[in-house]
C-alpha cells in the first residue's frame, strides 16, 4: 500500500480514536476509573447511577409527604471533563490535522503547477528541487518522473535544433560548391568536364545525406516493416567491406576481414546492410591514416558476433552512453549529422539483435574503438556453404 494512503488512514483513525476517548471521558467524570462499565460504577457516580435521595418523605401521621421530596441531583463534573471542552478540543484537533494534511498536499502540488507553467512557456529546462524529489512518497516519485520527462523533452528539442542546424549546413555546403563549379564551367568551357565530375560527387553526397535522414525517420516512426528471411551474414559483411575498402584505400587506410563459417540467420537484408555499413564506414572515417580497421564475424553458441575495431581516438567515457542518441556527435570536427549509430541500433533491434560500443584500452589509455553487433541464430538454420 502506498505511503500517502497510509498517512491519510492513520490521521483519520487518530482523530476518530481521540473522539472516542473524549466521549468516554465525558460520560465517566466521577472518581471511578473511566474504563469501568456503567454497572460497576459506585452509587451516585455519573449519569449511570441511581439517585441517593428519596423522591418523598414520611410525616408524623405516617403518610407520604411529597411536598418535602427532594429532586435527584447529579454531581457537577470537573472543568476538564465538561462536554463543551471536549467538543472544543476535538474541533481544534480536527482543524489542526486538516491544516497539516492540506499543507502536506498543497505544497508539492503548487510546485508541480509552477513547473508545468514553466514548460508551457517553452522553458524545458525546468527541474523540481531536491526537497521534493527526495521525498519517499507518491509526490517524490511524481517529481522524479517529471524531472526525467522534462530532461528528455529538453534533449529532444535540443536534438531537433541541432538537426536543423546540421542538416542546413550539410545541405548548404555541397550546394554552394555546386554553384561555384557551375559558374566556373560556364566561364571556362575547358573546365566543364572536371566541373561536371565534381558536381556529380557533390550530388552523390547530397543523396547519401537525404537517404540517411529518411532512413532514420522511417525507423524512428516504425514505418519500416522488417522482413525475416534467411540471410548469409558472411556474404553481406563481405559485400559491405568491398565497398568500404575502396574508401579506405583512397585515404591510406587498410581493412582486415576475418569471416568464420557461420549459419544462416533470419533478418532483413536491407536493414542489416544499412547497420553494418554505418558501423564500418564510421570506423574507416575515424581511424587515422596508415592504420587498420578489423572486421571479424564469428559464432558464440546461438548468436553471431560481428566486431568492428579501429585504431582511432575513441570516445570520451562520459559520451559513450549518448552515442546512440540521434544527432549526437562525440567529435564535431568530423562531417556527418550523428545518425549513423542511431540507424545501426534501430536497424539491428528490428532484426532482434543488439549492438554494443566500447573503447579499446591499452595501458590504461584509449587506443581504439570497438562496435559489436550480435544477432540470434535461427534454431532451424543450416550451415552456410
UniProtKB/TrEMBL annotation:
Ranges of residues in domain HAMP:
103-158
Question: What compartments host this protein?
Answer: Cell membrane
Q: For this UniProt entry, what is the primary localization, expressed as one broad class?
A: membrane
The entry's keywords: ATP-binding, Cell membrane, Kinase, Membrane, Nucleotide-binding, Phosphoprotein, Transferase, Transmembrane, Transmembrane helix, Two-component regulatory system
Limits of the Histidine kinase domain: 166-379
For membrane topology, the record states: Multi-pass membrane protein
Q: Which reaction does it catalyse?
A: ATP + protein L-histidine = ADP + protein N-phospho-L-histidine
Q: Which residues cross the membrane?
A: 84-102
InterPro entries according to UniProt: HAMP_dom (IPR003660), HATPase_C_sf (IPR036890), HATPase_dom (IPR003594), His_kinase_dom (IPR005467), HisK_dim/P_dom (IPR003661), HisK_dim/P_sf (IPR036097), HssS/ArlS-like (IPR050398), Sig_transdc_His_kin-like_C (IPR004358)
What is the uppermost EC class here? transferase
Q: Which SUPFAM superfamilies does the record associate with it?
A: ATPase domain of HSP90 chaperone/DNA topoisomerase II/histidine kinase, HAMP domain-like, Homodimeric domain of signal transducing histidine kinase
Q: What does UniProt give as GO cellular component?
A: plasma membrane
Name any one GO molecular function. Answer: ATP binding
The superkingdom of the source organism is Bacteria
Enzyme Commission number(s) from the entry: 2.7.13.3
The name this protein carries in UniProt is histidine kinase
Q: Record the organism.
A: Rheinheimera lutimaris
Recite the lineage of the species: Bacteria, Pseudomonadati, Pseudomonadota, Gammaproteobacteria, Chromatiales
Amino acid at each position: 500500500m502506498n505511503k500517502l494512503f497510509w498517512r491519510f488512514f492513520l490521521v483519520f483513525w487518530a482523530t476518530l480514536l481521540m473522539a472516542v476517548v473524549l466521549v468516554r471521558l465525558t460520560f465517566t467524570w466521577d472518581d471511578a476509573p473511566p474504563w469501568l462499565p456503567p454497572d460497576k460504577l459506585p452509587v451516585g457516580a455519573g449519569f449511570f447511577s441511581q439517585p441517593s435521595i428519596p423522591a418523598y418523605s414520611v410525616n408524623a401521621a405516617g403518610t407520604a409527604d411529597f411536598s418535602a421530596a427532594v429532586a435527584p441531583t447529579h454531581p457537577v463534573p470537573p472543568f476538564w471533563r465538561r462536554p463543551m471542552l471536549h467538543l472544543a478540543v476535538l474541533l481544534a484537533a480536527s482543524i489542526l490535522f486538516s491544516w497539516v494534511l492540506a499543507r502536506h498536499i498543497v505544497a508539492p502540488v503548487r510546485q508541480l503547477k509552477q513547473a508545468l507553467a514553466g514548460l508551457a512557456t517553452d522553458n524545458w529546462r525546468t527541474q523540481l528541487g531536491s526537497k521534493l524529489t527526495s521525498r519517499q512518497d507518491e509526490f517524490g516519485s511524481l517529481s522524479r518522473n517529471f524531472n526525467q520527462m522534462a530532461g528528455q523533452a529538453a534533449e529532444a528539442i535540443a536534438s531537433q535544433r541541432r538537426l536543423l542546424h546540421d542538416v542546413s549546413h550539410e545541405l548548404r555546403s555541397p550546394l554552394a560548391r555546386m554553384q561555384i563549379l557551375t559558374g566556373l564551367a560556364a566561364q571556362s568551357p575547358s573546365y566543364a568536364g572536371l566541373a561536371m565530375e565534381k558536381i556529380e560527387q557533390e550530388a552523390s553526397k547530397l543523396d547519401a545525406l537525404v537517404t540517411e535522414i529518411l532512413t532514420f525517420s522511417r525507423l524512428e516512426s516504425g514505418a519500416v516493416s522488417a522482413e525475416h528471411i534467411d540471410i548469409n551474414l558472411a556474404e553481406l559483411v563481405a559485400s559491405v567491406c568491398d565497398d568500404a575498402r575502396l574508401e579506405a584505400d583512397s585515404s591510406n587506410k587498410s581493412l582486415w576481414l576475418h569471416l568464420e563459417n557461420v549459419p544462416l540467420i533470419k533478418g532483413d537484408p536491407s536493414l542489416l546492410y544499412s547497420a553494418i555499413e554505418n558501423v564500418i564506414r564510421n570506423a574507416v572515417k575515424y581511424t587515422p591514416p596508415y592504420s587498420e580497421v578489423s572486421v571479424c564475424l564469428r559464432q558464440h553458441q546461438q548468436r553471431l558476433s560481428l566486431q568492428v575495431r579501429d585504431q582511432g581516438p575513441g570516445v570520451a567515457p562520459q559520451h559513450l552512453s549518448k552515442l546512440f542518441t540521434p544527432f549526437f556527435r562525440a567529435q564535431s570536427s568530423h562531417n556527418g549529422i550523428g545518425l549513423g549509430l542511431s540507424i545501426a541500433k534501430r536497424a539491428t533491434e528490428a532484426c532482434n539483435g543488439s549492438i554494443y560500443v566500447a573503447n579499446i584500452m591499452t595501458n590504461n589509455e584509449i587506443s581504439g574503438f570497438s562496435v559489436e553487433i550480435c544477432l540470434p541464430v535461427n534454431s532451424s538454420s543450416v550451415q552456410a556453404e
